[in-house]
């Protein structure tokens, strides 16, 4: 039992690795590279905006030929020194998320601070701007994190976001192993509502996983991290970028086929499966075997779930996307499924349903649900100050238009 717990903990830690890091690791694993599916993925000719994901050797730093054009700012008075940065509460490929208190009104925010140099080096400007664009569209949905405003300095981008401190769904799953069906149903309904809203805006989320699902202080779901969202996908539209998280890649993505909104319903099925069983479907510690399972192994469901849950998982984890639940009428099909018959969707969206779990946080300084891996890390001194422009000029160039229009401040009616 101890060995099993150690293996599960190791798996959970590895899950924090993004696809970019994963591709680089697998590319250096001679055993894994011999598998035909892995070779196919590594040798594919990706679209332009996914090229860096496939590249095990990062491109050289931007050449110092042009100074970056920061563009007009919709919030010209915002600056890092407006905030007192208190704790690191998350980390990613391009920067950190910090708990910060605004010095003038004492309000707490989660401030996502991204290094422009790292973004430009990996040619990820499109994903960052996509995240910012999606955040602008979501400010009024109850289960999507809200953006208050964004601004930039010469070397960093700043998202000033809602501060959510009930913990990642990932964190709670790690502690409890799995959830009972009513709790899984409640979370799945709020997640599905958020995905349905994104789809109504012609946005495909593409990276649903427990790490990107937060609980607020009452225990409601908040979906975050929109860096892999794809905009402008009409009802029958498709895209083909290879991206996501290994455990959750849908068969059509692995097959390098065009895919559509139903990729999000596959991921929802994978998250529901993980909430009920403790691991993602088709999971194997051997990545090549896991890919083969996703593509070829029939879905196996243990008998300890209801018939409704079984039917839902079979529909969402259908390998043929044209037969998958949600392929015809999108979110309407999901919410009308018998698994969700106990859910009153109007009350759910109004947050009138009592969450099955209360994080019991005492206030903004209560960090019990954040991983100490983050909170024990010292806050970098450079986060809260603007650098000497003379030093910056030499390090971030060749991107005059990259972040034009990044800065944002909502109109006052956004909060009404």
UniProtKB/TrEMBL annotation:
Keywords: ATP-binding, Kinase, Nucleotide-binding, Phosphoprotein, Serine/threonine-protein kinase, Transferase. Residues 83-340 form the Protein kinase domain. Residues 341-416 form the AGC-kinase C-terminal domain. The keyword Ribosomal protein does not apply. ATP binds at residue 121. One of its GO terms (molecular function) is protein serine/threonine kinase activity. Gene3D superfamilies: Phosphorylase Kinase, domain 1, Transferase(Phosphotransferase) domain 1. The keyword ATP-binding applies. Residues 49-76 are annotated as: Disordered. Residues 66-76 have a biased composition (Polar residues). CDD domains: STKc_SGK (cd05575). InterPro entries: AGC-kinase_C (IPR000961), Kinase-like_dom_sf (IPR011009), Pkinase_C (IPR017892), Prot_kinase_dom (IPR000719), Protein_kinase_ATP_BS (IPR017441), Ser/Thr_kinase_AS (IPR008271). Pfam families: Pkinase (PF00069), Pkinase_C (PF00433). Belongs to the protein kinase superfamily. PANTHER family: RIBOSOMAL PROTEIN S6 KINASE. This is Serum/glucocorticoid regulated kinase 1. It comes from Gadus morhua. The gene is SGK1.
């Amino acid at each position: 039992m101890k060995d099993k717990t150690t293996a599960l903990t190791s798996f959970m830690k590895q899950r924090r690795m993004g696809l970019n890091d994963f591709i680089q690791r697998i590319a250096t694993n001679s055993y894994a590279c011999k598998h035909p599916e892995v070779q196919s993925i590594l040798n594919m000719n990706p679209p332009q905006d996914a090229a860096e994901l496939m590249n095990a050797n990062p491109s050289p730093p931007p050449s110092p030929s042009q100074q970056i054009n920061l563009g007009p700012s919709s919030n010209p008075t915002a600056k890092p020194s407006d905030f007192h940065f208190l704790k690191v509460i998350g980390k990613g490929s391009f920067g950190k998320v910090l708990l910060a208190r605004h010095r003038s009104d004492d309000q707490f925010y989660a401030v996502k601070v991204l290094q422009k140099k790292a973004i430009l080096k990996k040619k990820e400007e499109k994903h960052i701007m996509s995240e910012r664009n999606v955040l602008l569209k979501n400010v009024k949905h109850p289960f999507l994190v809200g953006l208050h405003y964004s601004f930039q300095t010469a070397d960093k981008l700043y998202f000033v976001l809602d501060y959510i401190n009930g913990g990642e769904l990932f964190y709670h799953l790690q502690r409890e192993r799995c959830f009972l069906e009513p709790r899984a149903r409640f979370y799945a309904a709020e997640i599905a509502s958020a995905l349905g809203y994104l789809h109504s805006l012609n946005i495909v989320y593409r990276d649903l996983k427990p790490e990107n699902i937060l609980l607020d202080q009452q225990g409601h779901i908040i979906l975050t991290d929109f860096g892999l969202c794809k905009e402008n996908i009409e009802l029958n539209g498709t895209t083909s970028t290879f991206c996501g998280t290994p455990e959750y890649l849908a068969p059509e993505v692995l097959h390098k086929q065009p895919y559509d909104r139903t990729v999000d319903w596959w991921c929802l099925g994978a998250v529901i499966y993980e909430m009920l069983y403790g691991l993602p479907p088709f999971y194997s510690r051997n990545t090549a075997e896991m890919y083969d399972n996703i593509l070829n192994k029939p879905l196996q469901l243990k008998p300890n779930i209801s018939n409704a849950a079984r039917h839902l998982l079979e529909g969402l984890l259908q390998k043929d996307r044209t037969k998958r639940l949600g392929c015809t009428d999108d979110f309407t099909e999901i919410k009308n499924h018998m698994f969700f018959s106990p859910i009153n969707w109007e009350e759910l969206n109004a947050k009138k349903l009592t969450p099955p779990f209360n994080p019991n946080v005492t206030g903004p300084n209560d960090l019990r649900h954040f991983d100490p891996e983050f909170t024990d890390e010292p806050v970098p001194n450079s986060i809260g100050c603007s650098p000497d422009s003379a030093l910056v000029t030499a390090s971030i160039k060749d991107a005059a238009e990259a972040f034009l229009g990044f800065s944002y401040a909502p109109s006052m009616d956004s909060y009404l």
